[in-house]
Amino acid sequence: MKFFKIRNKEDFNDFAIRTFIFQYRNNLVYKKYCDLIGYNLDSVNSVKDIPYLPVVFFKKNKIKSFKGKSKLFFSSSGTTSKKLSTHHLNRIENYKESFNRCFKIFYGPLDDLTILALLPSYLKQKNSSLIFMISELINETKKKESGFYLYDYERLSKTIDFLEKNKRKSVLIGIVPSLFSFGKLFPKKLNHTIIMETGGMKNIPVELTRKEIHQKLKGFFGVNSIHSEYGMTELLSQGYSVKNGVFKNPPWMKVFTYELNNPFKRTAIGKVGRLNIIDLANQDSCSFISTDDIGRSFNDCSYEVLGRLDNADMRGCNLLFNQ
């Protein structure tokens, strides 16, 4: 069964266990880590038993569950001179299947949309998984207005006015600094355009909570809610929030919270902890990742991203502290 055919909890659990067995046998770094902490094939009988690889390993190793050279790799958007994370792939099809199907789950057929992107810092970066994803989504819309607008705010403003006038459903996705800059210069009252932020707070001089950021963006664009995308280089799937910073995932991705001082114990529902992620699209690398993000998860499988652990590198994914 392909990961995107997962429909329920039983499918997910069965696929997760089979993925663990495969990656334990074929991913040398993951196997060594599991062995080091005392886990092997005999000690994992359920999803709760599966160990999570600390995300920092992606900075120091090639996390591969395949032999031979990588067909391609993505790099993180670190802000320091420290070594960046890399995600090595043998099959780009898994990534394309994941982000295409995931986006359609939340926003419907791509040919019904126009996608406008304000992601200047990512365009400067080589091997960005976000730019790859947005480029593919833009191409699938088959709309001439879809595209990257960099700092051409006037052209973007005219495009949005045209789309609004013709009542065409659109998504403006951007990093927070660019959305702020555009909103200040060209405030609007939007009825057919979704505003989606994807983080990028490292260039904002004043620390704001997600609630404060969304309030300002709602004021700039006259909308009732701000959408958010949660992803990272080490994942091939994304979570989306349509309001209030509460994220949901596609059926093949789940987020769990683990105690900050005990990486092997899950927290109670609603309690703040470290976010551990199972992304079953990550067949070429590792599907079980312990992130440096903190948040809380809820009974309906939704979750909040509340910030970063102390001493964790700032990155360009969606990491805004929500007080």
Please summarize what this structure is.
By secondary structure, this protein is of the alpha/beta class.
In the CATH hierarchy, the third-tier topology of the largest domain is known as: Rossmann fold
**Helix segment count?**
9
Coarse structural class = alpha/beta
Order of helices and strands: HHEHEEHEHHEHEHEHEEEEEEE
Strand tally is 14
Tally of distinct domains: 2
CATH architectural type of the largest domain = 3-Layer(aba) Sandwich
Strand residues, percent: 15-25%
Q: What is the overall silhouette? A: globular
Global Rg: 20 Å
- The average pLDDT value, as a whole number, equals 92
Residue stretches low in confidence (pLDDT < 50, at least 5 long) are: 314-323
Major sheet details: 12 strands, mixed
Helix proportion range: 25-40%
End-to-end Cα distance, whole Å, is 41 Å
Highest-level CATH class of the largest domain: Alpha Beta
Layout of strands and helices, then pairs:
Blueprint: H1 9-26, H2 28-36, E1 53-54, H3 57-60, E2 72-75, E3 86-89, H4 92-107, E4 114-118, H5 120-124, H6 129-141, E5 147-148, H7 153-165, E6 170-174, H8 176-185, E7 193-197, H9 210-221, E8 227-230, E9 239-241, E10 246-248, E11 253-258, E12 273-279, E13 288-297, E14 303-308
Parallel strand pairs: 1-13, 4-5, 4-6, 6-7, 7-8
Antiparallel strand pairs: 2-3, 8-9, 9-10, 10-14, 11-12, 12-13, 13-14
